[in-house]
Amino acid sequence: MHPVIAKTFGGLSTQYYFRHLILGALLPALVLFMLSQGGHHIQIGMIVFFVINTLLYPYSRFVYESIIHFLIGENIFLVNAVLMLFVKLMTMAICWSAAIFIAPVGLAYLYFHHSKAND
Question: Tens digit of pLDDT for each residue in 14-35?
Fold first, then answer.
């Protein structure tokens, strides 16, 4: 595997990547199901966009979680479970829908992090 690809796309643990890949695939699956039930035509461009965002979602989520960890640290907040689930779903939807824009930041970070570790 080329070193750049190994340092970027291979930068996340396999368990982390596949966990978020599965969670990220739920949103487009739900949207496609709703579109098919409504009798709407699904365009190829939409499917390509869904696939790209789903594959990049784990890197987008990595950026989000890194920022939140930096801001919050190891603090624990006790909140209503319904509110927390709603916030979690909204952050997942935002990270998935903007993955094509957010993920390059995570990939760049992983590349520089793993390059520095190898030096």
Answer: 899 999 999 999 999 998 898 8
